[in-house]
Amino acid sequence: WMHNGFLQVEGEKMSKSLGNFITIHDVLLHDVLLAHVPALVPLGNEEGETPAPADWQIAWNGLCARLSMLQTKYREPLDWTEKRFNESSDELYRWYEALRSIGFDCTLQRDVPQGIVGALCDDLNSWQALTELRAAYKNQDIVALGAGMGFLGLLNPIFVERSDILLFDRSGGLDDETTRKVMSLIAARLEARKAKNWAESDRIRDELAAMGIQLKDSKNPATGEIETTWEVKR
Hints:
By secondary structure, the protein is mostly helical. The chain has 2 domains: 7-104 and 154-161, no CATH class; 170-232, no CATH class. The protein has helices at residues 24-28, 55-70, 82-101, 114-121, 126-138, 142-151, 158-161, 176-194, 198-210; strands at residues 7-9, 12-13, 78-80, 213-219, 226-232. The strands form 2 sheets. A 3-stranded mixed β-sheet has the order 2-1-3. The protein has a two-stranded antiparallel sheet with strand order 4-5. A hairpin with a 2-residue loop joins strand 1 (7-9) and strand 2. Helix 4 runs antiparallel to helix 5 (126-138). The radius of gyration is 20 Å and the shape is globular.
């Protein structure tokens, strides 16, 4: 990785004397906290000890760091912020959810979208390359999204293929039948919201709350659609 501009942390110059420098090791051991999966990583066990991160957590943090840095052109000042890191994590999460939804095959060779190639040929305009990726996601061109992610080093097959990664598991240990019921109720609630049947929407939310399910509504910045994520209350 190459960067020729000044490095900053939270708006201040990165300096050993200021004690605000961050190592790659620090980044890779960062807690994985997603808006879509709140409190995914426990902050400590009963003895107060912080558990060692799993291999997939370290790999995920590496992808988040890469996406964070690609958003700044190599000749411009790079400001490393916690906010950008977390936003990168959320964006990658949405992209991988899309890849998983179609069973994207990471082993196949695919043509890289010309918009991405053209952006990088323009003095390594990595921001524009990411803009092309976001357009592919917004247009639901998931194959182009995956091909572009692979070309930019943002595609790790384990996050597409493996089913045992907690990052994509919101079930909190619920059995399959209960999980299906939760998903069905959430879908019904979304339909009620679209129909502006707020009473029914609230009724379903209350029913889910009684089951110990906490909902979170958010607008997908790419599509503008309302999305509902959920977790088992802890």
